[in-house]
Write a structure and sequence with these properties.
The protein has 289 residues and is of the alpha/beta class. Helix content is 38%, strand content 22%. Its EC number is 5.4.99.5.
Length: 289
């Protein structure tokens, strides 16, 4: 009969396995770091000033979630990769995250730390306007603004209407689920590099007169909308997020049929479709918006 292995040597073996895996993960991360100089040269990052590529990141996050299984919680895996990618972006071209605290300091701080870690500089702003102005004055900085109607913020997206203005380039979290640890819906605003844009969902600024609950419910099935009152026109300024299959005209026609008149529209950005996964990390489901 074989003698049972003493527990301490079983533990020593397991720790040796962990050390081997840790050393390999660290080596691979350092190897990932070695391609930074080539990435900067190929992407000509010094000209555009920004290495951020949201379409590529959304694709990477979807594949990460799709292949993930096992004991490690999805929250942990997602956060590790977010920090790796955000830090690699920063190493290619330093940037600062300007976060609007209008939805509360704690929730926004969680969004920033979960998605960008602790190496990327983080500056807080009381209101969207300050965060957007900081990005407009920079080359490659990001603004994080809650994707919600917050009375103090007004129609912040109108600052993105001009051709040369920064635009919405992403929506966080990349992977949505109930009880996401940093789940505050958040728009990311930046000066987009031309090859960087993800346009599955387009975001449009719309000014309407005659806005009311009837018009809001007429367009609710068609697109996600954030509204801010526009007293001058007895109407509203809207930020409309159009899912891939939805034409802006569908939404404008529905608004007119419900009694509103549309004053003007302007494209203010685009982002990848939202992905929703079940809490247990089941396969991701694209929700279109
Ligand atoms: O693929 C790129 O363009 C990269 O710069 C690499 C990388 C990454 O670290 O994976 C970093 C920044 C981009 O936003 C996307 C991905």
């Amino acid at each position: 009969m074989t003698k049972p292995t003493p527990p301490f040597s079983a533990l020593a073996q397991l720790r040796a396995d962990i050390d081997r895996i840790d050393a390999e993960m660290h080596r691979l991360l350092m190897e990932r770091g070695e391609i930074i100089d080539r990435l900067v040269a190929v992407k000509q990052t010094s000209e555009s000033g920004s290495a951020f590529r949201p379409a590529r990141e959304a694709d990477m996050m979807r594949r990460l979630v799709a292949r993930h299984h096992g004991r490690l919680p999805l929250d942990t895996v997602e956060s590790i990769w977010r920090v790796i990618i955000a830090t690699f972006t920063w190493v290619q071209a330093p940037y600062t995250v300007h976060a609007d605290l209008s939805a509360g300091e704690a929730v926004m701080r969680d969004v920033v730390r979960f998605h960008f870690g602790f190496t990327v500089p983080f500056v807080t702003h009381v209101g969207a306007a300050g965060a957007l102005a900081a990005v407009a004055a920079s080359k490659g900085d990001l603004a994080l603004v809650p994707a919600a109607s917050l009375s103090g913020n007004g129609a912040w997206w109108t600052a993105l209407e001009a051709a040369g203005a920064p635009k919405i380039i992403a929506r966080l979290p990349f992977v949505e689920r109930a009880d996401h640890p940093a789940g505050l819906p958040t728009f990311v605003v930046a000066r987009p590099a031309l090859d960087a844009v993800a346009n599955e969902v387009t975001t449009v600024s719309v000014r309407v007169a005659g806005w009311g609950p009837q018009v809001a419910s007429a367009i609710a099935p068609l697109a996600d909308t954030i509204a801010a009152p526009d007293r001058a026109l007895d109407g509203a300024m809207l930020l409309v997020s159009l899912p891939p299959e939805r034409a802006l005209d569908d939404v404008l026609v529905a608004m007119r049929q419900a009694g509103a008149s549309v004053r003007n529209t302007a494209l203010v950005g685009g982002h990848a479709s939202r992905y929703t996964v079940a809490r247990d990390g089941a396969q991701p489901v694209p929700v279109g918006r």
